[in-house]
Design brief:
This protein is an alpha+beta fold. Helices cover about 25% and strands about 30% of the residues. The chain has a seven-stranded mixed sheet with strand order 9-10-6-5-4-1-11.
């Protein structure tokens, strides 16, 4: 049998270590660089809702369908207590509201709000929000996707009047949320603190 030189054996061993380590290194580098990581699996109902709303990845399509921007990028860097709802540290983003979708019934295909994150000068769809005014709800908290909407709570100034008490549920369909898919805030969403349209809590939502 031909004997492998010690040097060749060392090189082979070193190459094997590099190959085995490569996926871990690549994963760490991608995470550090902010590359998108795979989202947690969605339930069939959520996956179906997401598929039906994919067209709104283009915010101009959302505007044509009646969603209008509330302009402010909402951020809760330190979290907050908003009525009965605790907001964990994180951001929401820019809300686009469609008032024609507001009514006594919630439809997975017609969220009242679409939420975008400002990324490199563009709006990137990250979540949808189902919303119902307290008066419309008729004294009972509405539910969708097996989840009861949070609330009732006052309107979120400056994007809506304080008097508009309501229930809402954020669903992070397009961006993984380390806090949970139904949490109100997302610690992975960023609002530029220097942008004039950013509204950080600590002032007021």
């Amino acid at each position: 049998m031909r004997r492998i030189p010690v040097r060749s054996s060392y090189v082979c061993s070193s190459l094997l270590v590099v190959l085995l380590a490569a996926p871990s290194v690549a994963h760490a580098q991608a995470k550090q660089a902010g590359a998108p990581m795979k989202m947690a699996a969605l339930s069939p109902e959520l996956a179906s809702a997401k598929a039906g709303l994919e067209k709104y990845n283009d915010p101009l399509v959302a505007v044509r369908d009646g969603y209008f921007s509330t302009v402010a990028c909402i951020d809760f860097p330190h979290g907050a207590q908003h009525g009965p709802v605790t907001y964990k540290p994180g951001a929401m983003g820019v809300h686009l509201l469609n008032t024609s979708n507001i009514g006594p019934q919630l439809d997975p295909a017609k969220p009242q709000v679409l939420i975008y994150e400002p990324v490199a000068g563009k709006l990137k769809l990250v979540a949808a929000e189902w919303f119902m005014p307290e008066q419309v709800a008729g004294g009972k908290a509405p539910a969708i996707f097996g989840q009861t909407l949070y609330g009732p709570m006052d309107g979120h100034e400056p994007i809506m009047p304080k008097e508009l008490r309501h229930y809402d549920l954020h669903v992070w369909l397009w961006k993984d949320n380390p806090l949970g898919v139904f949490e109100s805030t997302n610690s992975a969403v960023k609002c530029d603190p220097k942008a004039p349209y950013t509204h950080a809590e600590g002032m007021h939502h």
